[in-house]
Inverse folding.
């Protein structure tokens, strides 16, 4: 109950109306606030809660430096026993994350590819297996790796904006989503929806994502932070040990599947991405992006 009351104040008072900008949390009065992250990951902490914002313009591409910085930030929160929950969102307007940085997969050495993929794995392991209550506030488009980050959280709120989209669209680039991407989606939306989504590389509008269960609810963009606070309060109203053990029991088989095959998964990724056909496909995609920017 104390957590719920604190989150009620965090949301702007008993009525839950946030009076601050979208990019800030209104933490409980009198509590100590700590800001960290001078790079691409901004972390704001107070009263056992954290707001984690990605700020890597223009699209929060998951490069190796960003993955490393985000992984370190999440591990620090995981190790801080006073921290109980977090909201993951973006500080870049119109985009949650465009997913894996294509430049990390094109023309790279096998050693660099392996390092990059290990960092991708580690981010998912940290989020999917976190003891924290985690809410993704998806305030922009979220394809591929961006969608995976959101799927790894406990709850997903998406801005109700038809311009935004979300999904695992890897096949559109000639890439196959690895088994743990598939497992995460399958656990969320079911087998048939996953079959269509993965084979066709579908990107869903917010309304479509809500319909298949890819996101849990839609809210107006200006109300996302207030709603994230309310949802986090609901999760934190449950005794931590009961919530954490229930989460672990449900997610352990999926986590163990990757942990037991982690090195093989890295080797498979390196072999696949290094193929001439895949490199050519990535090159064409990068050229297409350049033409769009021109």
């Amino acid at each position: 109950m104390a957590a719920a009351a604190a989150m009620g104040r965090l949301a702007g008072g008993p009525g839950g109306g946030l009076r601050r900008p979208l990019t800030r949390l209104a933490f409980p009065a009198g509590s100590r606030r700590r800001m960290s992250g001078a790079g691409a990951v901004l972390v704001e902490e107070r009263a056992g809660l954290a707001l984690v914002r990605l700020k890597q313009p223009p699209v929060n591409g998951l490069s190796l430096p960003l993955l490393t910085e985000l992984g370190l930030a999440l591990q620090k929160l995981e190790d801080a026993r006073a921290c109980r929950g977090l909201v993951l969102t973006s500080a870049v307007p119109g985009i949650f994350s465009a997913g894996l940085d294509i430049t990390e997969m094109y023309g790279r050495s096998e050693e660099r590819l392996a390092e990059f993929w290990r960092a991708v794995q580690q981010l998912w392991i940290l989020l999917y297996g976190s003891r924290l209550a985690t809410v993704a506030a998806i305030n922009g488009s979220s394809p591929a790796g961006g969608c995976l980050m959101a799927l790894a959280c406990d709850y997903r709120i998406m801005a109700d904006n038809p311009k935004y989209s979300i999904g695992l669209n890897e096949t559109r680039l000639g890439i196959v989503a690895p088994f743990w991407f598939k497992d995460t989606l399958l656990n969320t939306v079911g087998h048939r929806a996953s079959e269509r989504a993965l084979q066709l590389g579908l990107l869903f509008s917010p309304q479509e994502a809500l319909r298949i269960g890819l996101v849990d609810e839609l809210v107006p963009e200006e109300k996302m932070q207030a709603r994230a606070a309310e949802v986090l309060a609901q999760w934190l109203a449950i005794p931590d040990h009961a919530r954490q053990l229930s989460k672990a029991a449900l997610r352990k088989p999926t986590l163990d599947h990757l942990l037991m095959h982690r090195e093989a998964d890295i080797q498979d990724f390196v072999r696949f991405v290094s193929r001439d056909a895949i490199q050519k496909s990535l090159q064409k995609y990068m050229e297409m992006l350049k033409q769009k920017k021109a």
Summary: The chain is about 50% helix and 15% strand. The chain has a mean pLDDT of 88. Strands lie at 33-36, 41-46, 49-54, 85-90, 94-95, 133-138, 140-143, 155-159, 166-167, 217-219.
